[in-house]
Amino acid sequence: MNSEELDQKICATFGDLVIDKALVRALKIRDKRTIPSFVEEWLISRFQRPDKSNAEIYQDVTAFMSKHLPSKTEKERIKHQLQSGESLVILDRFDVRIDIKNNRKLLNIPCLEEPNARVANEVIDKNPILLEGGQWGAGRLIYRAEGKNYVIEMIEFNPMQSGKVRLEQLIKAREQFSTREWIYLLLRTMGYEPFAYNEAQQNNLILRLLPLVQNNLNMMELAPKGTGKSFIYSNLSRYVWLNSGGALTQAQLFKNMNTKEIGLMGRYDLLVLDEGQSINFKGADDIHAKFKDYLESGHYSVGNDKITSECGLMILANIDLYDNAPRQSDYIRHLPEMFHDSALMDRFHGIIAGWEIPRFMTESAALGVGMKADVFGEYLHQLRIVSHVEFPFGECPNLKGDNRDVKAVTRIATALSKLLLLNPDHPDYETYVLNPAKALRQRVRSH
């Protein structure tokens, strides 16, 4: 199969759920404004037509962005317009938190750096997802009096509609592809050109998706700079939070006892800690203890509260190589000291050998069609929560051995089974599911 044949098969199978990734890259919308790929592709899909040139699509998208997606440098102008009585529609990632003490619903509007706006009750009733980590969409804002003060309020909200993938359609589509061709599709959707990588590299790249399809899957990827470790986590799914280095506190991670706000570990499908080698944990001893508890059990305690979550943890860290292998055999020494504890490390299910993935080059970028990023992000999220009755994949044979090893391999194999739609009775299962799951776990055991 070549690139053109792959394009034809993907288009014939998925229809309007796909987009030309090369076109997205050529338009360079994200050079004008820093937005996730799933928002960029949604905007392009909104204005793309067969009779339009690239220049016309670019002009339409950027005109829409200029009107509805203001930069933070424009925030005072927007506030002035609202203050002057205008009603404005803004495209942003809105989220709502409940202020129990003062009986308020507080809206966060990132582009205005306004964390304490208001939101109409009917907006919440129609869009409860605003309470579950937020949602990109178009919100109509007004400025109104509230007692002796004035506030910004969102009175209407239209979510950025993701194309819905019915999982039974996905199962039917998978029948049209060999396992290798399905991996090509996944790579194209992730933004990679499959034919720029050999098969072993392709198999490694798709492992980055595993924490997105399986609850409470905790992994690491250790690699040199420039391999694109963090890209997919910040661009494929709104259910992921990517933290890039810096300091992290117990309140940010678990729960803020002053505001009663649940931390990152309780609000997302996946928390990704990028630049893991340089993270500074404030109150490292307490965080270490909570990580150990959570990675083992799926819950943690803060004060008198026990909080259960299905969030996975992904650590991304840069390491030095010598002759295409980690310079230090004990590569975990690159991470903050808390991860040097073997009891904590043993609670991670797998380590991706990022040193076996080459640097991301211009020719590595997708050259044809793949699934739209917002569609794919919703698909990955559905795989986390679907029941076995609805989606008959995610099986693993009964394994024997050390309890943590069995648990880890089973969880990874379940994720790979869902991602590749392969069960143990398929001839490709051992090669593409069970053996990679064992290899990921073995790196934890031999670190």
Any overview of this molecule?
The chain is of the alpha/beta class and 447 residues long. Among the domains are: 72-159; 198-357 and 386-447, Rossmann fold. It contains 18 helices and 18 strands. Strands 2-3-4-6-5 form a 5-stranded mixed barrel. Strands 8-10-14-7-17 form a 5-stranded parallel β-sheet. It has a two-stranded antiparallel sheet with strand order 1-18. β15 and β16 (325-326) form a beta hairpin. α9 (179-190) packs across α10 (199-206) and α17 (403-420) packs antiparallel against α18 (429-445). It is globular and about 65 Å long. The two termini are 38 Å apart.
Give a quick summary of the entry.
With about 450 residues, the protein is of the alpha/beta class. The chain is built from 18 helices and 18 strands. Among the domains are: about 70-160; about 200-355 and about 385-445, P-loop containing nucleotide triphosphate hydrolases (Rossmann fold, 3-Layer(aba) Sandwich).
